[in-house]
Protein 1
Amino acid sequence: MQTMSSVENGVARNDYERELKAHWDAKTADEINLLLGAEDGLYHHHYAVGDFDRSVLTAPAESREERILRELHRMESDQVSLLTNALGDLPAGARGMDAGSGRGGTSFMTAEKFGCRMDGVNFCTHQVEFARSVAQKHGWDEKVDFHVANMVATPFPDRSFDFVVSNETTMYVDLDELFGEIRRVLRPGGRYVATTWCRNDAVDGRSDASARIDEHYVCRMHKRSTYFEALAANGLVPYRVTRHTEEAIPYWELRRQSALRTGVEEPFLEGYRERSLDYLLIAAERI
């Protein structure tokens, strides 16, 4: 297991990465994510697709917020099935990497579904420490470990993994660099599955909604076309691409009703409704 001090200083390699790392390092009291995962240990740093139980909006005042939060958590956990279903069948003893693993929710759920080994990489030290503590608490640490590392420059040898997933993390990196690293660590025929929001450049190259989201998260949202250009350039061939833009709207409609809303709900709703943003699942194989 890595020691934090041995790698922490080297994971942010340029001014943008240092700014981004400082942003996430400062978010130790991330109230909405910490509350949502407290009951089952599945802490997510991603959103959701699909509809919500409309009865939560008419619940009595004393229980309404609790029901909204439970429904948001259900939706976020269900979203992981987009990734795991697209992976298909995995061989016994498969090993996977979670690129940008947050507090571990996607890694834990993937390991549970497939009985596989998972390695999460994340350059936010306190999130890695948190995810490791959750793994130990629930007895998941035999299958899942987390590493302080930059997902575009991981510490793993070539061809270490049967699959890689990234759950709403690609907007923080250069896609050509990320997909080159994913190709390096995947075995031939290995699979990469991503969910992501992106700019729909068939509609609008740079909408106001996308700019406001970038500012909120210190991210650099990519054009939809850039994903497929970078995949092709790095020997990753898509076998499934699905658009879930309309399905992404209800989550934000519900989160807007929570007392823990953060203000980013409106630009997501605006972007999805005007179609300047898309929500995609992309699954590819390494040739």
Note: The longest helix spans residues 61-87.
Protein 2
Amino acid sequence: MTKPEILVTRAVFPDVVERLSQYFEVEANPDDQLYSKDELIAKLQGKAGVFTTPSSSITAEVIAACPSLRAICNMAVGFNNIDVAAATQAGILVTNTPDVLNETTADFAWALLLAAARRVTESEHWLRAGKWQKWRYDTLLGADIHGTTLGIIGMGRIGQAIARRSMGFDMNVIYHNRSRVPEQLEARANNARYVSKEELLRTADHVMLALPYSPEAHHTIGAAELAQMKPSATLVNIARGGIVDDAALIVALRAGRLAAAGLDVFENEPAFDPGFLTLSNVVLTPHIASASEPTRRAMANCAADNLIAALGGISPPNLLNPEAMTKTKGTARD
């Protein structure tokens, strides 16, 4: 029996590619080439499935040009790189990889918060530059974490994991979400208290962003929101680029209207705003919040599980558009 053909759009663990090869004819990308839209369309001709990452944009135009495609499996929690509505209309199953990265991402959120608030990277650069000549009472004074108020925007699984870690810092936790989470989850999340976005911004000493990207979430934090925050506050974004207006954030950091920021994601990444490089009060990392080896392997295998199920006629574990199942016939799309 002929195996279905799939495309793996980016380099991934070789053992995961080998595993996929047991089920599919795999066109892999070990050189990790970034495909243009036209290259992606060309490579998807005749492919039944695609194992993709957020760097590959599966637009309505790409979907329309690839009639054989039956499954799009993203190696990420976020899926704003995929036009899910267009995929659903075409009977293409779309999946993501939730849950497997919650704890690792929450760990990294705290790494960014501590580094930004306590000026860790700034102080290391200062030391390496040979500027440490003596102890002074006011050298690189930062902000406390313990006993302060943490504000979390986006209280899904990652937001809740972030909040649980705040117990060790004896923090007061407030959060804003599209809707209030059940009381039992609030209790587990260090007795987090639901507040309006405006109250959170005015009150929090440290603000963490953990919400998914959507058109409605675009520039959740812009100039107006930054103006509401305490000048002593820290902002951390481990969510998605576009949730923060990066240009407005640079202005606020440069003017001292915000003390510090820790950013793992950016608008237009990896071509982020070079203005960040002129600032000492921002910690910058290249979208690595989930980048522990066990977690990235779990993500890759989760995406593989989804693809194997989707093209095997089984509802995938992390199906985002179950309504597309009714549009799919056997092993071929109408």
Note: Residues 329-334 have pLDDT under 50 and may be disordered.
Protein 3
Amino acid sequence: MSKRIRRHRQPIGQPEEGDPGGYWLPREASGVLLVSADPYLQEEAKRIVAAAGGTLRTAEGVSEAVHGWDSADVVLVGSDVRELPPRRRAPSVLLGKASDGDGLWRMAAALGAERVAVLPEAASWLAEHLTMSGSPDPGGTVTGIVGGCGGAGASTAAIWLAQAAASQGVSTLLIDGDPWGGGLEFAVTDEPVPGLRWPDFQESRGSMDPVQFRDSLPVAGGFTYLSWPGTREPVQSPDAGAIAAIMDAARRAFELTLVDLGRSSEGVGRLSWDCDNLLLLTTAHLRSAVASARILDELPPVDTGLLVRGSNASQVQPTFIAESLGIPLVGVVPEVRGVAAGTELGRLLELGRRKDISRLTGSVLELHGAHR
């Protein structure tokens, strides 16, 4: 399997009905280059850039765009473009239409586009993105943790990593990315903690104030967390627009956001595309390695490191699994007695203080660049 390439792409949500510029305030004009011969994309980009207070230059082909490519604040490439000029930076956003379907994501990977915007649904997001493009602060790092097989312990690892980052003085948010996981909060604490949960953000759109967002969430173990509620009551998942607003606020509010992606379509299919890098956790067994290879193919092509849970007596060596998957091994998670009971009783943080766990989490945070 080929080595994973560092690229960041973010799925864009649905705007509210009405004025697509209703949730943002232009802050600073941007010089925007659009490379596309598609009349619809040209008109949409012209309208959005003007509303954002920026200036737009349009080039219908790559050869025409070469001279202004690297000097533009933002480079937009239409879905009609199939190749880029040599030795130029990757485009900021790939613009497409709903009719382009899933092929947009494959095209974004091929072109190296950082993000994808489907128009007209993403008009509001794109306008806001353009107003923020000149900001010197790109926000914090978002790292996703995904289990390569069921029961690998990804949620446990995510909690321990959040605990370790917070202990180092890093402002940290842990996001429960699996609505079918029963509520990550049960493993974090054995007491009710005031704060908002996922369903409380169903109506969120556009920009949220990062300070208000941070202060609205519960805190345990020194880090903030956003969990699915631990109740039997049916809950409605926020749509793509709300998820985009939450992830944007998380990036601006915290130095490090750790996302426990789970293995559902909500986590892997949506939230993984918001991550700057990923950690894939598996066990040292052949079936687990095979399952990990399959889920790896479903993940976005960003930097991905491997964590293997096992011991010296494990059936398959962690280094062999890493070589087979084509991703670097960043740590071996020791088998810890009491994890199952700690999860049930909300006491995983107590186990996270063990020296062997602290050494592992500190090494992972440093080696994988989970905090830059």
Note: The longest helix spans residues 154-167.
Protein 4
Amino acid sequence: MKKISVFVLLVIFGCKTTKIDDDFKLNFKKVPISAKFENESKSIWGASIVKGDDKLYHMYYSRWDKKLGWAWVTHSEIAHAVSKSPLGPWKHKDVALSIRGANYWDGLCTHNPTVHKYNGKYYLYYMGNTGDGKAMGNKLNPIHRNNQRIGVAIADNPNGPWQRLDNPIIDVSPNPEAMDALMVSNPSITQKPDGTYLMVYKAVGKKKPGIMGGPVVHCVATSNNPSGPFKKYDKPVFLAEGYDFPAEDPFIWYQKGKYRAILKDMHGAFTKEGKALVLFESNDGYDWKLSKNALVSKLEIHWADGNLQKVEHLERPQLYIENGVPKVLL
């Protein structure tokens, strides 16, 4: 299997809208080299940015030792970097959420962060799990994979310390027929116009046989508070006929009177471009449809030096939003 160097990419863009809300579109600029963040010994994945009162930009990202292989599910930790610009260059500062023991629900792995500031506090949402701690090279450890749950850590300052909770804020449902009976992961959250909170998360059920279960869907939950409790909605979103796993990694936000989502099209279920990043929209956060300008990005990066780089994947899209307007895509 070809060795892949995983890195974080930040892309600045503009949002184009007309008087017709359905014409919402994301327009990208070319990417400066400073916006690439990589490490020779660490795989870097799935970052999210918030601006602190110190006028610095704080980035939280997943990382693990490259020598372990595809070990995000067993050995990922959430690290913290800072920059004077959301386009870098970035400097690693510390580890925000580290290993804390196999007896904790999130004790051996923290992954896929998304950070927000609500009511003067910082909320770092993430996937956590525990298990036997065994990396399996290019295979997923099924114990850790099925122990994935969703949590949040809370801080008064983006530099921490981060208070981690004793329990997940989204756990699997006890009903074996539920959409999320096997595992839950990959949270995305936004504040609604009424001040409450909307979350979309990845879930796996137990209806398909085998240790990995299935199908893989996305669920909606709401809460009056950013740390929960969350009430689950009983219908999946981002579905595509003929696909058990059509989409992954949605990032949701509210802009121009609608909820919007960038997500990963796993198979070309939503556009003719095959695997790509695509745009969805919703009037209420529960019922989602493909946007008119659906294609966000093909599997390519346009660098400011004129180079066009083809890539195998664009994973875990996250937006940095300033004053209600998206500025950077990670």
Note: Residues 142-146 form the longest helix (5 residues).
